[in-house]
Design goal:
By secondary structure, the protein is an alpha/beta fold. It contains 18 helices and 16 strands. β12, α10 and β13 form a beta-alpha-beta unit. The protein starts with a strand and ends in a 39-residue tail after the last helix. It binds 5'-O-[(L-methionyl)-sulphamoyl]adenosine (MSP).
């Protein structure tokens, strides 16, 4: 029976253009999706865009467009970026699609019919020029935090979701499932939040129009988070159980940033409980990127545009850097110096050199032909054991979404590979015809270890892995079977590799 794996990214607002923060979540999801495919799972990898709500309506007004025109324009930027970054999503959902709108209306109507949604009054502070409701704590001196003008207390009719009813059930679920919310520090924050008490949640608005109408009361549009969160099931065909929904739900991992954890770990599970649906297996909140030590923001003009980085360094270097530099779950800092340093030291030096020197040597000593290995010495055996242990370690790390630990485990074997060549000194053996078989064995071990390394790296750096494997005459897509030692056949022709990553002069930016 084939196993299934369902992974999601948040759906991105179309009032902003993509930056490295968005790319980060999407790349993490892509690595997991690729790795799970390699392990033989049937994977559904979902991403998309969040296109309703007041923010998008406002941005469209400011740009002199309709919200849908704005969305159509921005969605292309996201899709083009994902293509450029080799993101292998299965489906891209837009909340303005009929399939989504139908699913959301259905979910709302179902929860309404069973009595967990009721009509009430929402009272808060309203800024008329901005057409925005604010809570008292958001106000600055009772003035609008956006425009600094006076606000007034207003009542708005609103539908409410009986979130309070699910407080104990949610707490019990979180406590019974230690892996449900990760990392642990975030889980503790959510437990504390839920224990403080859940209030019923306003889930409709009458103050703007750009959204999905409440079924049966078109004066209201459905609150953007109720709309957006449902994407994770509407994309699977909800409410139709027969196809992907029956097959892939509950989701294996929702990957999100820490700022939107409460929506995913409190609101979403309680909506699902009300609808009688199983809860996500895992919600993982990653940290935030600052840029050269500062918060990334439009006003500081320091938003890191991924296209520029990809054009300069290549998609794989960006993919590698983002997942290697910072442990998933912690905050991190993006800097050009750190990026260039990682490219030079990890990719050009450690990884690239190993491939270059080993493929050059086998060409020099054996015309590029893989020899049948002789008996393995203690040194060879240790190197083989290290390579095999890496496969197990990477699997365990990726199960925990510990991307940087997985890469670290791979790099330990790359360093061991360089050391293995240094210590066994093939150039010395080559001078002695009696050592011919020994030399062939060393070449074999070096290339075989790298073949396995590139199978694992295929999830992180797909283009680089394909290229490197092609030097080893390995043109089949990487599979789980390929992770086993011994796949490299005697007689295989190895091509002398070109440098995978050219060195970048440190200190230069442009
Ligand atoms: N539309 C909502 C999500 C709805 S999901 C049902 C949304 N969109 S967003 O475009 O504002 O943000 C999407 C993701 O980008 C979030 O996970 C957020 O954490 C992430 N990031 C935005 N800026 C970021 C950084 N500077 N660093 C890391 N991630 C960041 O929220």
């Amino acid at each position: 029976m084939s196993r299934t794996f369902y992974v999601t990214t948040p759906i991105y607002y179309v009032n902003d253009v993509p930056h490295i923060g968005h790319a980060y979540t999407t790349l993490a999801a892509d690595v997991i999706a690729r790795y799970k495919r390699l392990k033989g799972n049937e994977v559904f990898f979902l991403t998309g865009t969040d296109e309703h709500g007041q923010k998008v309506e406002k941005a469209a007004n400011a740009a002199g467009e309709t919200p849908l025109e704005l969305a159509d324009r921005v969605v292309k930027r996201f899709q083009a970026l994902w293509e450029k970054l080799d993101v292998s999503y299965t489906d891209f959902i837009r909340t303005t699609q009929e399939r989504h709108k139908n699913g959301v209306s259905h979910l709302f109507a179902q929860v309404l019919a069973q009595g967990d949604i009721y009509l009430g009054e929402y009272e808060d502070w309203y800024c008329t020029p901005c057409e925005t409701f604010w809570t008292e704590t958001q106000l600055i001196d009772y003035k609008c935090p956006d425009c600094n003008r006076p606000t007034e207390k207003l009542k708005e009719e609103s539908y409410f979701f009986r979130m309070s009813k699910y407080q104990e059930q949610l707490l019990a679920h979180i406590e019974a499932n230690p892996d449900f919310i990760q990392p642990k520090s975030k889980r503790n924050e959510i437990i504390a939040f839920v224990k403080e008490g859940l209030r019923d949640l306003s889930i409709s608005r009458t103050s703007f129009k750009w959204g999905i109408p409440v079924p049966g009361n078109e004066r209201h549009v459905i609150y953007v988070w109720f709309d957006a969160l449902a994407n994770y099931i509407t994309a699977l065909g909800y409410p139709d159980q027969s196809g992907n929904f029956g097959k892939f739900w509950p989701v294996d991992a929702h990957l999100i940033g820490k700022d939107i954890l409460r929506f995913h770990a409190v609101y979403w599970p309680t909506f699902l409980m009300a609808a009688g649906l199983p809860l996500p297996r895992k919600v993982f909140a990653h940290g935030w990127w600052t840029v050269e030590g500062q918060k990334m923001s439009k006003s500081l003009q320091n938003v890191v545009e991924p296209n520029m980085l990809i054009d300069k360094y290549g998609a794989d270097a960006v993919r590698y850097f983002l997942l290697r530099e910072v442990p998933f779950g912690l905050d991190g800092d993006f800097s050009h110096t750190a990026l260039v340093h990682r490219i030079n030291s990890d990719l050009a030096n450690d990884l690239g050199n190993l491939l270059n020197r080993s493929t050059a040597m086998i060409n020099k000593y054996f015309d590029g032909i893989v020899q049948t290995p002789g008996p393995l010495s203690a040194l060879d055996q240790a190197y083989r054991a290290k390579t095999e242990a890496m496969v197990t370690q990477v699997d365990a790390h990726l199960d925990e979404l510990a991307f940087s630990k997985a890469l670290q485990a791979i790099w330990e074997v790359i360093s061991a590979g360089n050391k293995y060549i240094d210590e066994s000194a093939p150039w010395a053996l080559a001078k002695d015809p009696a050592q011919h078989e020994r030399l062939g064995t060393i070449m074999y071990c070096s290339l075989e270890s790298q073949r396995i390394i590139y199978h694992l790296l295929a999830a992180f750096m797909p283009k680089t892995a394909t290229k490197a494997l092609s030097y080893l005459s390995w043109d089949a897509p990487p599979t789980e079977a390929g992770l086993k030692w011994g796949g490299l056949a005697t007689g295989t022709k190895i091509t002398k590799a070109e440098p995978l990553f050219p060195r970048i002069e440190e200190g230069t930016r442009d």
